[in-house]
Each structure stands twice: as C-alpha cells, then as structure tokens.
Amino acid sequence: MLKANRKGQWRYRIGDYRVIVNIQDENLVVLALEVGHRKNIYNS
C-alpha cells in the first residue's frame, strides 16, 4: 500500500521495511529515495 506525505513523497510498506519513493506520473518514473528498516527509515 502506498501512502503520501506532505513532501510529495510516497512510502511503500514491505513487512518491517519501508521504501520511500518519488513518483513522476508525467514521465512514468519511480525513484527510490531510501530503503530501510522501519525503525531507521524515518530518522534521516
């Protein structure tokens, strides 16, 4: 499940891990900004 935040970034939950992405629909681009365990991913 994808969820948006105020910065226009999306987070995708995979078990205990999160992938933070920026989606550019007009260009069909999904850029993974960070991948990590959920206890660490939001600290950066």
Automatic annotation (TrEMBL):
InterPro entries listed in its UniProt record: RelE/ParE_toxin (IPR007712), RelE/ParE_toxin_dom_sf (IPR035093)
Pfam families linked: ParE_toxin
Superkingdom assignment: Bacteria
Organism: Leptotrichia hofstadii F0254
Family named by the database record: Belongs to the RelE toxin family.
Keywords, alphabetical: Toxin-antitoxin system
Name of the protein described by the UniProt record: Toxin-antitoxin system, toxin component, RelE domain protein
